Amino acid sequence: MAEVEVILPHERYKILIEPGVLENLGARVRECAPAEKCALFTDSTVGRHYGALAKKSLQASAYQVEYLEFAGGEQSKSLESVRVFYDALLDAKLERTSPVIALGGGVVGDTAGFAAATYLRGVPLIQCPTSLLAMVDASVGGKVGVNVPQGKNLIGSFHQPKLVLLDPRVLRTLDLRELRCGFAECVKHGILGDSALFEWTESSVDALLALEEPAIIELLSRNTAFKARIVAADEKEKGMRALLNLGHTFGHAIEKTSAYAIPHGEAVSLGIAAAAYVSVESGRAEKEVLTRSLKLLERFGLPVTAALAPGAELFHAMKLDKKIRSGTIRLVLPLGIGRAEIADDIPDPLILEAFESIRS
Ligand SMILES: NC(=O)c1ccc[n+]([C@@H]2O[C@H](COP(=O)([O-])OP(=O)(O)OC[C@H]3O[C@@H](n4cnc5c(N)ncnc54)[C@H](O)[C@@H]3O)[C@@H](O)[C@H]2O)c1
Ligand SMILES: [Zn+2]
Questions:
Q1: Residue 259, SS3?
Q2: Is the pLDDT reported for residue 36 higher than 80?
Q3: Which of 102, 106, 212, 228 could form a disulfide with 112 if both were Cys (CB 3.0 to 4.6 A apart)?
Q4: Ligand 1, closest atom to CA 134?
Q5: How many CB atoms lie within 10 A of CB 121?
Q6: What spacing in Å lies between the alpha carbon of 8 and ligand 1's midpoint?
Q7: Mean pLDDT, the chain, as a whole number?
């Protein structure tokens, strides 16, 4: 078992990494959120695998469980789903102290998390991430929210969980393509701020792809600890937390113009390749940053080139995204392995060239 602590100015919580911990879900939840009732949210895929087990464990710890399942997928991360959750919570008369348990990938965590942040002005949230991406990224740091037709994650809040429970064994049922998407975020962490993590990841690819338990536990603890450090330094993304967007400004444009046919983690992989290209071409980083990053992404089976939309369309999507969020195009650019900075002065032609560099 491994344990990581997230320490924030006004609260702190634990991330517990333990094979089989899902069987003890009830006992773990009771330690940090005792109540008569609780709500367990999941999607239909995760529900099919682990819903009954989680519910049984909560009932064994004397919770009355309101079990809620939605279809899942990015389209489910909506205000309509939240509305359905509210109704169910109100009908079941859940109280201020009743915990909401989010069992699933980032879609479940973000949607259930947003419902928990707003129901009765906030109830305790327990994150039980089941995808690798949600384990190393989405479940840590308190960002919750939903999509609207105008864009992804535009409605949301900060609501820190009381506890994050990671059961490495559930990764055995995750699709390989989804697993790879999680590795993309781990590679991102190494490049933007932790060269030792990057090197360890380089030396552990085979064990990780084989889901060897010690390697996976180490991956989870190193990456959650890394994210916890960044969140602790900048809870509300006023400074260095923005570095976590490495590969994401390019990536969001790629996701959007592919009509989400390219999944998030793959778009991030492509985005990291594009950002590293800009770094090298603008004289910020040695070529080695680009070659080592590409090599590691490829060893995980992640794409570093793809059939993309026309350059003008990609650029337009990037501008539109930024217009809603911050006005100017701000790119996170690696300076070396383990160091990155934010730049807002990259000329448009170089951005277009970077997109071309990842076109297959
Ligand atoms: N809040 C944050 O800080 C943050 C950070 C990164 C990403 N996100 C969000 O997370 C979402 C992406 O998360 P995701 O990649 O986990 O997507 P997801 O929740 O859609 O999960 C991917 C797929 O894997 C399935 N799945 C999950 N765990 C499984 C398991 N153990 N076994 C079998 N199938 C399993 C799901 O049912 C789903 O079909 C996006 O909406 C993104 O915006 C949020
Ligand atoms: Zn991401």
A1: coil
A2: yes
A3: 102
A4: 16
A5: 7
A6: 25
A7: 95
Helical ranges in 210-247 per DSSP H:
213-233
- Between the CA of 105 and the centroid of ligand 1 the distance, in Å, is 3
Q: Of 150, 56, 162, give the one whose Cα is nearest residue 101.
A: 162
Mind listing the pLDDT tens digit for each residue in 84-121?
999 999 999 999 999 999 999 999 999 999 999 999 99
Separation between Cα atoms, residue 206 and residue 94, nearest integer Å: 46
Residues with CB under 6 A from ligand 1: 43, 45-46, 49, 72-74, 77, 104-108, 110, 130-131, 133-134, 137-138, 141, 143, 153, 170, 173-174, 178, 181, 264
Which atom of ligand 1 lies nearest, measured to the CA of 170? 31
Q: Which of 8-12, 49-53, 269-273, 323-327 has the lowest mean pLDDT?
A: 323-327
State the closest ligand 1 atom to the C-alpha of 185, by its place in the atom list counted from 1: 6
What is the distance between the terminal CA atoms of the chain, rounded to a whole angstrom? 43
Predicted confidence (pLDDT) per residue in 181-226, tens digit: 999 999 999 999 999 999 999 999 999 999 999 999 999 999 999 9
State which ligand 1 atom lies nearest to the alpha carbon of 153. 43
Asked whether the beta carbons of 249 and 330 are under 8 A apart, the reply is: yes
Q: What is the pLDDT of residue 327?
A: 67
